[in-house]
Amino acid sequence: MSYTPGVGGDPAQLAQRISSNIQKITQCYSIEANVENAEVHVQQANQQLSRAADYQRKSRKTLCIIILILVIGVAIISLIIWGLNH
């Protein structure tokens, strides 16, 4: 294939433009892949936050039950001690 001036431009420039366009396309695919990965990570983070909130709610409930049992226990022991002294 021979170079004909005025038809299609300089082959080196054409090759450079093609290479530049390929790099831009590759970069777009890379950006798209990163956005998709970020979306997956955000979804996973939301699931983990939801689970963490559930665990926190359950642990608060458990702590309240333990405190209530301790208060009742202290009250019973106090009544027993008070009853023995009177």
Report what the structure shows.
The chain crosses the membrane at residues 63-84. There is one protein chain. The chain has 86 residues and is an all-alpha fold. The protein is built from one helix and no strands. The protein has one helix spanning 11-85. It is rod-shaped, with a radius of gyration of 36 Å.
List keywords for this structure.
transmembrane, cDNA FLJ50258, weakly similar to Syntaxin-7, 86 residues, mainly alpha, rod-shaped
Tell how many strands the DSSP assignment holds: 0
Overall pLDDT metric = 88
Written as H for each helix and E for each strand, in order along the chain, the element string is: H
Low-confidence stretches: none
Total of DSSP H or I helical runs spanning 4+ residues: 1
Biggest beta sheet summary: none
Strand content: under 5%
Gap from first CA to last CA: 117 Å
